[in-house]
User: Which sequence fits this backbone?
């Protein structure tokens, strides 16, 4: 380690959602004068509107901070922000790999939650030095000592003397910076060795092309160098290198081992710069890439259609734009008899899906109809062929299926003890296999289950929250494909199958769920002048039926004194309502119908 | 010479009924009614100056309760009408009356000043239902008013009734229908109760037990069938008449003819422009006393587009059982009716629309879901 490296600290902040990660990042930047008060925007690291609103970090960002320690030495602190949600686990692990240490923020009024643990384990896996930071000590219900003990008992790291702060009011922020300098190891790495840069994020800029965020592990990189992406072999000429300061890119001369910075190289899409990939020199490059690279694979799929069919091209453009900055998003064109032209989109998880849908609607002003989320089923057919099904309506006929497999996840649930019974019932009901249960302390329990992912996408999170009055937290990761007894459930409106409503369900649940969904559909179909039968079918066998009764009366009896405004207003209102409806053959349904089928009612929660 | 209808609003009642959301005042200070009719008379005379080229062939005094006016005041109003406008010899002159406000003296005066049609609000023959509705009279009170008017020589009488009342059963309504038909009025209007905002019923809407849709439909079916059997023809969604008994004034509303409204909340449609006066008697009276015209509130900020005119025409015509004539429509707008409204064919197949004598019209079943169908076929509304 040379002198330069001794004065560098690379660290991340990890936390459960809402434990104050972004606020702490803000305070650190403010305290170290990386941004002036005037320039300080609330939560500068989360610069997407949606992130601010939801209070979660969607994409990682990095900031270089110059800080004079109390020993009088100047330090460079690189704060690498990480997404705080399970859907982005892989991105989190790549960001952590770029660091030597992590601040583990724990809310002193809440204690350890599922994502606290999941993130702490990730950091341990990456060999990081974990610095606990106990936050929100300004709140009356703060219990610093209990949380300190919990961190020591549950995670097994020393929390004695760790910073106890209030990021909100800016209390004890200096102790955090000191702890970083004193506890996080300086980076190692040989600046004369072959180049190895870890890509931990990238984003598309209209002027610069893709800006690639890297941590240089070994070697030295300059503008003008010819580089290679080790996973694809693609080569580029580096246009610019530099550092990431709080307000933007700061052009530099060189990036050396141990440093964090950016590269631009006229790269057109972020899919060419895969998170976790290794950048090296095209000539005399490294022989082996950094360990741990994998492609981000979508786990949850949903059909996305423009409410107004004429906006199909706008939707495609919007998806392409989002894809520029999100390599994990996948989409391909599909056609639904019910919904017309749209896209089958793949997401890392439910949150990723929701965020993308919201961004499409907000940033691109699109009205969307989305089908219920589905997972990928693996089917071994009788002819020996294996197929993967991401759209339930493409599920093959039963007689062609030899074996069907569905994805399962390892779920980790932390809950106050009083809700354990209800949550175990829920997991049981969702075909969960109990693994083990651990007491974190006298009041809280950690449960481990193997659960089919298709049960998780079926409103599991809401049910969990509802059964624990919001206290339980959930984290999961892909486990495996397991053989399962699955059936394809079709819904017929007025005798016609609506492909967008089809979904796959475990055979034992088919009847109960068919009944529930038929009832739900009934509430989402507007009454017409004729009766509308709703049927649920497995193959040609009808297993549930509801009827939307015919409309008998819809009239304004009185049109009095020549006042026709009322009548017109009434018709206008009706017309407006009608416009929002989606026409499926002879039946009109609300756009929410496709999602509403997955919303549980209280009895199920 | 173009004809014209006059609508004159009398916004006073002895007591506001529980279902009513028309502009009317339940009680007025002493002299308030006189102040209003004075202003109204002035307005009629002044406005008449602008329409010297027109002949008035219908006058309709509505409310409120026009029969609340004393003989003197009603006479004043009619002098003003006659001073301001030229009435045709066969002019239909209607007045709305409520039981409990009609006296022999008033009835004689009506006849004398030329009122030839009276519309009586009965609503129900069941005194319990009348009480629920907040009416001030009983069936007996109605009978007396009806007799007085007939004896005074009023030969054209309408009776207003309502159905789908709280706790009402189809049989209850049939009783009302039978009783009303036995009086042999020339005209019957039957309205389905709708709970409007700003009514007493609205305030207690959660406690009201109203007949369900099926039951309402049964009542409506009974209405159409019973009255047809008794010789009343349904010529509009809610209006039934014996031969020659159709209300000429109300037909103007549905056939896009010109009419002028007077009084607060009154609506006008003249030379293709629609407007109304605000729902404030004070604003109305003050404007006129200060020598101004009451402020006209236009229904639309902009001129109706040709499409809107077409749709409005069709919407109103389809209230009539004679329906809309494609030929007349095409003459008026120069647009192929059956092309623009081709969806009507679908409803013909389902039995909601019928083609008779070349016209498209709703069947009774179609009338009862007419909003649904109209909101489907009218593109511009």
Assistant:
């Amino acid at each position: 380690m040379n002198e330069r490296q001794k004065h560098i600290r690379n660290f991340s902040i990890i936390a459960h959602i809402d434990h104050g990660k972004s606020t702490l990042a803000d305070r650190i930047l403010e305290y170290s004068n990386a941004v002036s008060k005037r320039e300080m925007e609330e939560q500068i690291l989360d610069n997407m509107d949606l992130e601010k609103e939801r209070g979660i970090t969607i994409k990682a960002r990095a900031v270089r901070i110059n800080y004079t320690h109390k020993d009088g030495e100047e330090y460079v602190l690189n704060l690498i922000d990480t997404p705080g949600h399970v859907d982005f686990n892989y991105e989190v692990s790549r960001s952590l790999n770029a660091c030597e240490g992590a601040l583990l923020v724990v809310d002193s009024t809440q204690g350890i939650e599922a994502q606290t643990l999941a993130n702490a384990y990730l950091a341990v896996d990456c060999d990081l030095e974990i610095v606990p930071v106990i936050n929100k000590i300004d709140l009356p219900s703060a219990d610093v000592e209990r949380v300190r003990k919990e961190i020591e008992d549950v995670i097994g790291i020393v929390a004695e003397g760790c910073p106890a702060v209030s990021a909100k009011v800016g209390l004890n922020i200096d102790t955090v910076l000191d702890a970083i300098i004193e506890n996080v190891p300086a980076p190692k790495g040989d600046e004369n060795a072959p180049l190895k840069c870890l890509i931990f994020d990238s984003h598309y800029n209209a002027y610069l092309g893709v800006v690639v965020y890297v941590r240089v592990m070994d070697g030295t990189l300059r503008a003008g160098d010819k580089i290679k992406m080790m996973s694809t072999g693609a080569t580029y000429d580096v246009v610019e290198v530099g550092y990431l300061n709080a307000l933007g890119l700061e052009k530099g001369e060189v990036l050396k081992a141990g440093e964090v910075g950016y590269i631009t190289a006229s790269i057109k899409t972020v899919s060419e710069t895969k998170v976790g990939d290794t950048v090296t020199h095209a000539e005399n490059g490294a022989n082996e890439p950094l360990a741990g690279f994998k492609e981000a694979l979508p786990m949850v799929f949903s059909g996305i259609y423009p409410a107004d069919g004429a906006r199909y091209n706008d939707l495609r453009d919007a998806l392409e734009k989002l894809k520029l900055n999100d390599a994990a998003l996948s989409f391909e064109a599909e056609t639904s008899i019910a919904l017309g032209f749209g896209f089958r989109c793949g997401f890392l998880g439910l949150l990723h899906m929701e965020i993308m849908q919201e961004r499409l609607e907000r940033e691109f002003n699109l009205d969307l109809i989305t089908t219920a989320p589905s997972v990928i089923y693996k089917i071994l057919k009788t002819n020996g062929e294996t197929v993967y099904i991401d759209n339930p309506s493409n599920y093959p006929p039963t007689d062609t299926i030899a074996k069907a497999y569905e994805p399962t996840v390892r779920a980790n649930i932390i809950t106050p003890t009083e809700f354990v019974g209800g949550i175990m019932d829920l997991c049981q009901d969702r075909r969960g296999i109990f693994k083990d249960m651990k007491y974190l302390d006298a009041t809280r329990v950690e449960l481990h289950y193997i659960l089919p992912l298709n049960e998780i996408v079926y409103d599991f999170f809401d049910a969990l929250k509802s059964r624990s009055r919001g206290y339980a937290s959930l984290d999961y990761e892909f486990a495996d494909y397991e053989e399962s007894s699955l059936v394809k459930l079709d819904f017929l409106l007025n005798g016609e199958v609506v492909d967008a409503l089809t979904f796959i369900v475990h055979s034992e649940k088919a009847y109960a769920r068919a009944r529930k969904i038929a009832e739900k559909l009934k509430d989402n179909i507007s009454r017409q002048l004729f009766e509308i039968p709703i049927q649920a079918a497995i193959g040609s066998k009808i297993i549930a039926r509801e009827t939307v009764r015919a409309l008998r009366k819809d009239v304004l009896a009185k049109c009095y004194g020549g006042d026709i405004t009322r009548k017109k207003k009434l018709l206008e209102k009706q017309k407006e309502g009608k416009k929002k409806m989606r026409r499926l053959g002879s039946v009109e349904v609300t756009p929410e119908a496709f999602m509403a089928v997955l919303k549980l009612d209280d009895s199920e929660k | 010479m173009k004809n014209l209808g006059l609508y004159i609003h009398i916004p006073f009642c002895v007591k506001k009924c529980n279902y009513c959301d028309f502009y009317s005042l339940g009680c007025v200070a002493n002299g308030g009614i006189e102040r209003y009719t004075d202003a109204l008379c002035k307005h009629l005379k002044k406005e008449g100056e602008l329409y010297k080229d027109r002949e008035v062939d219908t006058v309709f005094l509505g409310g409120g309760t026009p029969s609340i006016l004393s003989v003197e005041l009603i006479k004043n109003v009619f002098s003003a009408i006659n001073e301001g406008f030229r009435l045709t010899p066969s002019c239909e002159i209607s007045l709305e009356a409520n039981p409990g406000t009609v006296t022999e003296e008033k009835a004689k005066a009506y006849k004398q000043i030329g009122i030839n049609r009276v519309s009586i609000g009965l609503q129900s023959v069941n005194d319990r239902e009348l009480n629920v509705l907040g009416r001030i009279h009983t069936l007996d009170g109605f009978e007396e008013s009806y007799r007085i008017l007939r004896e005074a020589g009023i030969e054209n009488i309408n009776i207003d009734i309502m159905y789908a009342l709280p706790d009402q059963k189809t049989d209850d309504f049939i009783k009302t229908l039978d009783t009303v038909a036995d009086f042999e009025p020339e005209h019957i209007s039957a309205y389905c109760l709708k709970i409007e905002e700003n009514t007493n019923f609205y305030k207690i809407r959660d406690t009201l037990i109203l007949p369900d849709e099926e039951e309402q439909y049964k009542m409506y079916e009974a209405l159409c069938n019973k009255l047809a059997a008794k010789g009343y023809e349904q010529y509009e969604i809610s209006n039934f008449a014996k031969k020659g008994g159709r209300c000429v004034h109300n037909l103007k509303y549905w056939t896009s003819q010109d009419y002028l409204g007077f009084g607060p909340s009154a609506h006008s449609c003249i030379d293709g422009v629609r407007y109304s006066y605000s729902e404030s008697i004070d604003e109305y009276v003050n404007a006129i006393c200060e020598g101004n015209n009451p402020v006209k509130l236009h229904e639309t900020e902009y001129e109706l587009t040709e499409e809107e005119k077409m749709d409005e025409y069709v919407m109103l015509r389809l209230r009539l059982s004679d329906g809309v004539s494609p030929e007349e429509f095409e003459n008026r707008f120069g647009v192929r009716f059956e092309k623009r409204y081709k969806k009507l064919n679908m409803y013909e197949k389902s039995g909601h629309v019928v083609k008779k004598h070349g016209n498209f019209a709703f069947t009774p079943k179609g009338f009862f879901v007419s909003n649904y169908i109209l909101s489907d076929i009218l593109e511009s509304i």
Observations:
- Chain B has a mean pLDDT of 93.
- Chain B touches chain A through 46 residues (CB under 8 Å).
- The domain at 4-253 of chain B is CATH 3.20.20.70 (TIM Barrel).
- The longest strand of chain B covers residues 86-97.
